[in-house]
Specification:
Alpha-Beta Plaits; 21 helices; mainly alpha; Na+/H+ antiporter like fold; four-stranded antiparallel beta sheet
C-alpha cells in the first residue's frame, strides 16, 4: 500500500534538500556529489533507515532517459563552439573508437570472470563504456583547480557525445541476445539508422528551434522554457520512434541552438542549468533507491576486479589508441584516461536488461552499480592530485588592480548614444535579436511614448523609439547609420565564435 501523498511530497522534498547539502559538502570533502547522491538514495531505500519501498526499473529508466535528454541538451546549449572545434575530432574518436575498445576489453574480462556468454559479456562492456564528466568538474571547481581549456573541452565533448555509441552497442547486444538470428548486416544497419537519423534530426531541430524561438513572440517570458523543454522531449521521442539515437539528436539541438542568437538566451541558459541540476539530483537519488545493498555483497569482488581493470587497463588503452593520431602529450592523454568517470548513464543502461528479463540482468545491474560507485569515488577524489602530478594545472588568473580601474578603461573605449529611430530605418518592426548587433553594442534603454523600459531579445522596435545605446570603438558609426539612415543595411549574423 502506497503512503499518503503528503508523505511522498515531504519525503521527496527532504531527499532533494539533502542532495543540495551533499553537493555543497562534496567540494569541501573532495568527493564527487554523485557518490553522495547515490548513497543518500541507498540509505533512504528499502534496506536503509529510510525504508522507502522502491523496486521499479521501468520508472527509474523513464526518469533517467528524460533526465539524460535534458541534461545533454543543457550541456550542448552551454558549450563554446570555439573550444569544441579545437578538439572535435579527438572527442569524436573517443566517443566512437574509444567506446568500442572499452566495450571489447571489459566484455572479454566479464566473460572469463563471471562465466558469461560472449553476448552477455559484451553487453556488460557496452553498458559501462560511456563516461560522465559532470562529477569531474564538480570536484575541480570545489578544489579551485584550473585545467588547460583543451582538456576541459575534450572531457565535456566526450561525455556529451559518447552516450549514443554506448546505447547503440547496448541495444544491439540486447537484440542479439533476444533474437539470435540477428546478423552482422542487421547490426551495421542498426548503427547507420541510429546515428544517421539522430544526426539529421538534431541538425534540423537545432536550426528550426532557434527560428521558432525568435519569431513565435510569446506574451509571457516564462513560456519560453516550456517551449524548449517540450522541443527537447519531442526531439528525443520522435527520433527514437524513427529508429534514431534520441540522445545524439538532443545534444546536437543544444549545441546548434547555443551557438546562435535567440530571445531570452541568458534566462534560458540559467533555467536549463538549474533544471539539469534538479534532474541530476532526482535521477541519482532514484537510482540509489533502486539498489538493494544486500544484493551487492555477492558481486563486490567481481565488481572491484572489473573496476580495477577498467581504470588501469581498458580506459587508458582505449584513450591512447583513440588519441594516437593527435599531438597531445602523454601526460594529457593519461589525464583524459583518468578523467573518464562512469556516472548515471551506465546504471540507467543496466535497467534495460532488467526490463527485457534477461537471466543475468540482476548480476549485470549490481556489478555495474559497484563499478560506478567505486570508479567515481576513486577517480573523482584523486583528479586534482593527478592533474598536479602531470603538470596540467594552470596558474591562478591575474586579478585587476581595482574594479574602478576596469570601469574607467571601459568608459574610455566606449560611448553612449541617444538615437531616435526614423520611420524609414530598416530596424522598424524588427526584434532586437534580428539586428545581429556586435558584442560591442548594447541597447541599454528604450523610451516609447513617455515610458522607459529595458529591452529583451524579443522586443520589436518601432518608429519614434528613443534608444540609449552603448557602442565601443568603430561600432559607433555603424550603429548611427543602421538606426537612423533609410539606406542602412541589417548586418549578417555573427559567426558562432563571436556570439
Amino acid at each position: 500500500m502506497l503512503p499518503p501523498i503528503d508523505v511522498l511530497i515531504f519525503g521527496a522534498a527532504l531527499l532533494l534538500l539533502l542532495g543540495v547539502l551533499a553537493s555543497k559538502a562534496s567540494g569541501k570533502l573532495g568527493v564527487p556529489s554523485l557518490v553522495l547522491f547515490l548513497l543518500i538514495g541507498m540509505l533512504a531505500g528499502s534496506e536503509g533507515p529510510g525504508g522507502i519501498p522502491f523496486d521499479d526499473p521501468w520508472l527509474a529508466q523513464l526518469l533517467g532517459v528524460m533526465s539524460l535528454s535534458l541534461i545533454l541538451f543543457s550541456g550542448g546549449l552551454d558549450a563554446e563552439w570555439k573550444q569544441i572545434r579545437s578538439v572535435l575530432w579527438s572527442g569524436l574518436s573517443l566517443a566512437t573508437a574509444g567506446v568500442l575498445i572499452t566495450t571489447l576489453l571489459v566484455g572479454f574480462l566479464a566473460i572469463w570472470l563471471l562465466g558469461f556468454s560472449f553476448e552477455q559479456g559484451i553487453l556488460l562492456g557496452a553498458i559501462v563504456s560511456s563516461t560522465d564528466a559532470a562529477a569531474v568538474f564538480t570536484v575541480l571547481r570545489g578544489r579551485k583547480v584550473r585545467l588547460k581549456e583543451n582538456l576541459v573541452s575534450l572531457l565535456e565533448l566526450e561525455s556529451g557525445s559518447n552516450d549514443p555509441m554506448a546505447i547503440f552497442l547496448t541495444v544491439g547486444m540486447l537484440q542479439l541476445l533476444l533474437h539470435p538470428s540477428t546478423t552482422l548486416l542487421d547490426f551495421a544497419l542498426l548503427f547507420l539508422r541510429q546515428m544517421g537519423i539522430g544526426t539529421i534530426t538534431g541538425f534540423a531541430v537545432g536550426r528550426g528551434l532557434r527560428w521558432v524561438i525568435n519569431r513565435i513572440r510569446l506574451q509571457q517570458e516564462g513560456l519560453y522554457p516550456v517551449l524548449t523543454v517540450a522541443a527537447v522531449l519531442l526531439t528525443y521521442g520522435g527520433t527514437a520512434l524513427l529508429g534514431g539515437s534520441g540522445f545524439l539528436a538532443v545534444y546536437l539541438v543544444g549545441l546548434l541552438l547555443g551557438q546562435g542568437e535567440f530571445v531570452h538566451k541568458q534566462s534560458l541558459l540559467r533555467f536549463h542549468d538549474g533544471l539539469a541540476w534538479l534532474l541530476q539530483l532526482a535521477m541519482f537519488l532514484t537510482l540509489g533507491l533502486l539498489v538493494f545493498p544486500s544484493r551487492l555483497v555477492p558481486v563486490v569482488g567481481a565488481g572491484l576486479l572489473l573496476t580495477g581493470f577498467l581504470l588501469v587497463v581498458a580506459r587508458p588503452l582505449s584513450v591512447l589508441l583513440a588519441l594516437s593520431p593527435t599531438r597531445m602529450r602523454l601526460g594529457e592523454k593519461l589525464f583524459v584516461a583518468w578523467g573518464g568517470l562512469r556516472g548515471a548513464a551506465p546504471i540507467i543502461l543496466a535497467t534495460f536488461p532488467l526490463l527485457d528479463g534477461l537471466p543475468v540482468a540482476g548480476t549485470i545491474f549490481n556489478v555495474v552499480f559497484v563499478l560506478v560507485l567505486v570508479s567515481v569515488g576513486v577517480q573523482g577524489t584523486s583528479i586534482p592530485w593527478v592533474a598536479r602530478a602531470l603538470g596540467l594545472i594552470l596558474p591562478p588568473p591575474s586579478v585587476p588592480a581595482s574594479s574602478s580601474t576596469t570601469a574607467a578603461e571601459r568608459c574610455m573605449t566606449s560611448s553612449l548614444l541617444e538615437i531616435t529611430i526614423s520611420p524609414q530605418s530598416p530596424v522598424v518592426d524588427k526584434q532586437v535579436v534580428e539586428l545581429h548587433l556586435a558584442p560591442a553594442v548594447q541597447i541599454l534603454l528604450i523610451r516609447r511614448q513617455a515610458e522607459d523600459f529595458h529591452p529583451s531579445g524579443s522586443t520589436a522596435l518601432q518608429a519614434g523609439d528613443q534608444l540609449l545605446i552603448q557602442a565601443e570603438g568603430a561600432a559607433r558609426d555603424q550603429v548611427e547609420s543602421l538606426f537612423t539612415s533609410p539606406s542602412g543595411i541589417l548586418p549578417a549574423p555573427h559567426s558562432p565564435n563571436h556570439e
